[in-house]
Structures are given as C-alpha cells and as structure tokens.
C-alpha cells in the first residue's frame, strides 16, 4: 500500500494481497482521520460482504472467492470508542457481468485498488441504535 495526501484528500493505491478495510483503517489511524468519505475501484480475489437482517439483528455474511472487479466502493469514516470506525459498502462484478454487493467486511486485492478518502473537519461518533447497529450520534458531533 502507498498513499499520498492532497489538501483534504488521501489517494491510496493497494497492491496484490493488500486488505481493503485493514488498509483504510491503517491510514485513518496514522493520519488521525475522524470524519471522511471513502470511494474506490479496483480488482479483488476474494471478499466478504454482509447483509443486516433487521428481524434477527445480525449480519448474514458470505465470502466470495475468484476474480472480481470493484464496480463501486463507498463508505464513511467516523469514530466509535475513540477509534476510527469504517462503514463501507461494495459492489463486485464477475466475468459473467453479474453484480454482488453488500456491507464490506473485507476484501483482498488481486491486481490493484485506487481509493480516495476525503476528510471533513470534525468528528462524529457512533452509538448503538434501537435497530441493533452502530448509528451516527449527531447530537454529540464536534466541528
């Protein structure tokens, strides 16, 4: 992984074998990013996505192995328990042009990935919501 800062943006290049979530979190910790948006593209050899079931209040997870293009990688960085908290969704296309998507738990790069983190001045924490997931705590946000 390599990255460079341009004003309030971090441009990240991931290489074969790098883990997307782990790498973004590493940049967020190193650069003290407490609020920002994430977008990216690239290619992976495996990924795990989740689907939150509001009735059971649990994520159903599934891992896919094989070569996939990242068609969309979107998310945000906030904080939870004084650490960066990543909320990332992804869609992945296979060689038959089918799309799979969901809440991204992790993905391993096959070729490369190009990710941009755009930082926002301030901090937004998360709290456990009634629905069973960590939601934005806007009442306690800081500019």
Features:
mainly beta; single chain; two-stranded antiparallel sheet; 143 residues; 60s Ribosomal Protein L30, Chain: A; 6-stranded antiparallel β-sheet; 1 helix
What is the gist of this entry?
This protein has 143 residues and is mainly beta. 8% of the residues lie in helices and 69% in strands.
Characterization of the model:
The chain is mostly beta strands and 143 residues long. It has one domain: 2-Layer Sandwich (60s Ribosomal Protein L30, Chain: A), CATH 3.30.1330. Helix content is 8%, strand content 69%. It has one helix and eight strands, in the order E-E-H-E-E-E-E-E-E. The strands form two sheets. Strands 1, 2, 3, 4, 5 and 6 form a six-stranded antiparallel sheet that branches. A hairpin with a 5-residue loop joins strand 5 and strand 6. It is flat, with a radius of gyration of 15 Å. The mean pLDDT is 97.
Chart the SSEs and their pairings:
Blueprint (H helix, E strand, L loop, with lengths): L1 E5 L2 E6 L5 H11 L5 E18 L4 E23 L2 E11 L5 E21 L3 E6 L5 E9 L1
Antiparallel strand pairs: 1-2, 2-6, 3-4, 3-6, 4-5, 5-6, 7-8
Return the CATH architecture.
2-Layer Sandwich
Q: What CATH first level would be assigned?
A: Alpha Beta
At CATH level 3, the topology is 60s Ribosomal Protein L30, Chain: A
- The CATH superfamily title: Hypothetical protein, similar to alpha- acetolactate decarboxylase, domain 2
Radius of gyration: 15 Å
Query: If helices are DSSP runs of H or I spanning 4 or more residues, what is the number of helices?
Result: 1
Strand content: over 45%
Unreliable spans:
none
Helix content: under 10%
Tally of strands = 8
Number of domains: 1
Q: Report the end-to-end length measured between terminal Cα atoms.
A: 30 Å
Structural class: mainly beta
Main beta sheet? 6 strands, antiparallel
Run of helices and strands: EEHEEEEEE
